[in-house]
Write a structure and sequence with these properties.
With 445 residues, the chain is an alpha/beta fold. It is 42% helix and 17% strand. The strands form two sheets. It has a six-stranded mixed β-sheet with strand order 3-4-5-2-1-6. A hairpin with a 2-residue loop joins strand 8 and strand 9. Helix 4 runs antiparallel to helix 5 and helix 7 packs antiparallel against helix 11.
Length: 445
């Protein structure tokens, strides 16, 4: 039997122990599995309390079971669910009973979602959105993923593809009726009008300045600067816990420390790097090298200096904010000269990482920067690089189809555009990327 035709099972809930655990079974033998363990097949979609028993008729647990005959199920196949107590011993006994049944095996990561995709329950953009929803760390990520799961991009792509096919049919008809005098002109004009409209809509989406696909990964902010200026103290302030060792001795931080933050719903990774200085210590030299490399890859650099001993920030391809620490040690008249400037446009800050002075203003500026960086963010149609590239390919094909190159070449470009959108939805020639996408899912989804 082909692996995709086998019946699979897996834990569909989180880490044990838990109050309740849900074990899902999907495939042609799901009904037989439910009958074997529960002693009967309950009414469809009705929660039923039963005592589960193994092959030796020994009780496993007092549980609730559900039966979803295909195709009216999450995967499009017969599905059974076992809601049991979430103890490790209970799950071990249930898994042993399931493994002992014929034609049943443990599911691989993402296999339930892949079967739902293959059975037409969701397209590839919705499958990707489900993965994003599972891994969402902030509320903005959750809302963006939920919109995609509800067809934000998929519905639009299906509409575009259908309209491309309509235009293609007109062009094909003009080729078939080329000998009928003015018939081709009557067909080509409305086809070109459809293509222009489609191209404009796609280019509008592609031209959006927001980096909504980056919302999945988040903004990367590197704290860099000379040694012993308070970088570790600052990251502890931002994280509101001690994640880095604070010491008066220069060179304490030698490796990169990363902290994931939720700033007003924006996912932000803050990096504490080793102090940048000349040193003969080979270990510290490696730390400095890594610090420079990581800062160069960041989306924003906070160049932290001692307020009494400033150092000029390095030249960088990304925005660099000057953050002067230890302002509590400054003279009274040497305070932050930019205090009254709006947070969104500030690039110079005075703080006391030890006391917390100026931290709220710095965080507010980071939130403003993140909002500008992500742009439309959660409302954007495109959330992955794969989606952007395929949509760009489709738009390029439409652009070429409008060139005066004959009906045959125009028809071919339209077929290519429709093919790109089909790949976007996962409906044509995507076998090479399915394994890559679904193996990132957790087991049980």
């Amino acid at each position: 039997m082909h692996p995709r035709e086998q019946t699979i099972f897996a834990l569909a809930t989180g880490r044990l122990p838990s109050a309740i655990a849900v074990v899902r079974v999907s495939g042609p033998e799901a009904g037989a599995v439910l009958d074997a363990l529960a002693g009967r097949l309950p009414p469809p979609r009705a929660a039923t309390r039963v005592v589960l028993r193994d092959a030796g008729r020994q009780p496993i647990d007092d549980a609730v079971v559900l039966w979803f005959p295909g195709p009216a199920s999450a995967t499009g196949e017969n599905v059974a669910e076992f809601h049991v107590h979430g103890g490790r011993a209970v799950l071990a006994a249930l898994f042993a009973a399931l493994a002992a049944l014929p034609d049943l095996r443990a599911a691989e990561p993402g296999e339930f979602t892949r079967r739902a995709f293959e059975n037409g329950k969701l397209d590839l953009t919705e499958a990707e959105a489900l993965d994003d929803l599972i891994h969402a760390d902030t509320d903005r990520q959750r809302r963006q993923a939920l919109r995609q799961l509800n067809g934000l991009l998929g519905d639009r792509a299906r509409d575009w593809r259908a309209r491309i096919i309509e235009a293609s049919a007109l062009i094909e008809a003009s080729i078939d009726f080329a000998e009928e005098g003015d018939v081709p002109a009557e067909l080509i004009a409305p086809a070109r009008e459809k293509i222009w409209t489609l191209l404009g809509e796609m280019q509008e989406v592609l031209a959006a300045q927001g980096q909504s696909e980056r919302l999945r990964d988040g903004l990367v902010v590197a704290i860099a600067g000379p040694p012993n200026v308070g970088k570790s103290t600052l990251i502890n302030q931002l994280a509101r816990r001690e994640v880095a060792i604070v010491s008066p001795h220069a060179g304490t931080t030698r490796d990169i420390i990363e902290v994931a933050l939720d700033l007003d719903g924006y996912p932000v990774t803050v990096i504490d790097t080793a102090g940048v200085r000349e040193t003969d210590d080979p270990v510290e030299q490696e730390g400095v090298r890594r610090a420079k490399a990581r800062a160069s890859e960041a989306d924003l650099v906070l160049w932290l200096v001692d307020g009494q001993n400033p150092h000029d920030p390095p030249t960088a391809a990304v925005p660099v904010w000057m953050v002067r620490n230890k302002v509590d040690l400054d003279a009274p008249d040497s305070g932050d000269a930019t205090t009254q400037r709006p947070a969104e446009v500030r690039t110079d800050f005075g703080i006391s990482a030890r006391r917390g002075d100026g931290i709220a203003q710095l965080i507010a500026a980071l939130v403003g920067f993140a909002g500008s960086f992500f742009g439309s963010g959660e409302g954007g149609l495109i959330t992955r690089t794969r989606q952007r590239q395929l949509l760009l390919d489709a738009a390029d094909s439409l652009q070429r189809s409008l060139a005066n190159q004959g009906e045959e070449l125009t028809a071919e470009e339209l077929r290519t555009a429709a093919f790109s959108l089909g790949r976007l939805l996962g409906r044509v020639d995507v076998e090479d990327i399915l394994d890559v996408i679904f193996r990132e899912f957790c087991v049980g989804k």
